[in-house]
Amino acid sequence: MGTSVKKETLSGMKWTAIETFSLDGINFVLGLLLARMLLPSDFGTVAMIGIFISVSNTFASSGFKNALIRKIDRTEVDYSTVFYFNIVVSVICYGILFVCAPWVADFFHTPIVCDILRVQSLAIIFSAFCLVQNARLTIAIDFKTLAKRSLLASLISAVVGVVMAYTGFGVWSLVAQNLVAKLVNTVFLWTYCKWKPLWTFSWKSFHELFSYGSKLMLSGLLNTFYNNLNSIVIGRYFSSSALGYYNRGTNFARFPVRTMKSVLQRVTFPILAKLQNDDHRLVAVYRKYIRMTSMVIFFSCILLGAMAKPVIIFLITEKWMKSIIYLQIFTFSIMFDHISAINLNLLQVKGRSDLFLRLEIIKKAIAVGILFSAIPFGVLGICISKVIYAQIATFINTYYTGKLFNLGYFTQVKDFSGYFFKSLIACTPAYLFTFLELPHIVSILFGLITGPALYWLMLRKNEDMLELISLARNAIHKKGNKDAKTQED
Questions:
Q1: Of 124, 192, 284, 347, whose CB has the highest number of CB atoms within 10 Å?
Q2: What 3-state class would DSSP assign to 188?
Q3: In 334-386, at which residue ranges do the beta strands (DSSP E only) sit?
């Protein structure tokens, strides 16, 4: 990596990692507390409406955030145009959901869904009000401010959610927790950024940004629809409790990947965008990202899957035992998401949102077919279908990077496959240990010691491992120097 790219990567990843790991840590602990106080059906009921909120958010943003980030000569008129468009569309989406809420409740045979959807949908409007501020901070690579925002919103909303759950509000504690997080997030960004839109709307600006963003919006809609389709199918054909078990297991599996993927996407897109005219450096940086993240993500997912039983029972009690198998299976699906994400990022920075959309259409058509074929096999079959689709999606997502950059599927497999097999070997003892009749905390501690130790022994001289350690040391050293300077002053 070049010096400037490495510096920006280090700074961006440091603050995004602080934000993401802290945020996910808070949400993880919050999830544990709420899982102990609420019923699986409460989580399942909220999950039923997830697709409607997510689709509306995708419509409201319309890919404009990434369009603004990618545009080199963006202006205040561009920002203002995006702002007003997002507000209008978000209000329209909320109105549609408010009117359709009774039919949604009837579809799931769950009357309370009507009121929950009408209240939870307010989050769409909150999100629209701060999209431009979010984009401006991302463009400036000011992830420090974004980290402060997320942590404040998460902490306040977590307190609200736990207090409401403890005092008997049930499913409404989940709704309130989400709304408060969105509201605090919006208030913080408006207070901190000091940005105000101009009283103008440019159709020229709109068409220019929308021509790029619309394709991302459509691909985002397809992706959102597919990601939430499982919840619709399980909620409709099975029960809210079954959906609760499925969501809890898959959310556990997503925890290590969601954290790394969030850091990766938010940091790499603006940085790779700056390299869009230098294919040689772009490819070199890309392959480095793939290897280093695969090294961490594969191991984290496989270790979590190996220790699924003691982790679930110890943290959220035997009430959630049905979630164990879903966690174990889903880890082998979610661990490949980062590879797809970076491949799609490459297409975006090269301005090929048309190819991005084409891939999404192909993938989701295949995915829906696999999903509905799995329904007769129950929730377990649906979970397995996600693993099958993950492999197909990885192959498809590497097609155009192979055409454009000579980085096809098999070339990329060579970059990351070694970490996959080494992770399997390192985590096998932890998995076998769970079959012994020992306290669950003992099994967890055994896995946390032996897994990393074996993985380290296999990678201690690995180039990517050494560079990752170097980056971490540089970040700590930089922070230490800054702290020392502050004390001297």
A1: 124
A2: helix
A3: none
Length of the chain (residues): 489
Both tokens of 199, joined, read: 């009283």
Render pLDDT for 166-195 as a digit per residue (tens, 0 to 9).
Answer: 999 999 999 999 999 999 989 998 888 878
Helix (H, G, I), strand (E, B) or coil at 318: helix
> Are the C-beta atoms of residues 360 and 219 closer than 8 Å to each other?
yes
Residue 324 corresponds to which tokens in the numbers above? Answer: 């164990």
- pTM recorded for the entire structure: 0.71
What angle, rounded to 10 degrees, do the helices at 122-129 and 50-61 form? 30
- For residue 154, what are the CA distances in angstroms to 61, 150, 207, 273? 22, 6, 36, 30
pLDDT of residue 267: 56
pLDDT for the residue 486: 42
User: Residue 237: which pLDDT band, with cuts at 50, 70 and 90?
Assistant: confident
Q: What CA–CA distance (Å, rounded) separates 43 from 379?
A: 16
Write out 50-64 in H/E/C secondary structure.
HHHHHHHHHHHHCCH
Query: Tokens 């070199």 map to which residue?
Result: 284
CA-closest candidate to residue 399, choices 411, 414, 390: 411
CB atoms within 10 A of CB 415: 17
The residues, any chain, with a CB within 8 Å of residue 113's CB and separated by 6 or more, are 45, 48, 49, 101, 104, 105
353 by DSSP, 3-state: which? helix
Residues 289-322: pLDDT tens digits? 788 888 888 999 999 999 999 999 999 888 899 9
DSSP state of 271: H
Cα–Cα distance, 379 to 368 (Å, whole number) = 15
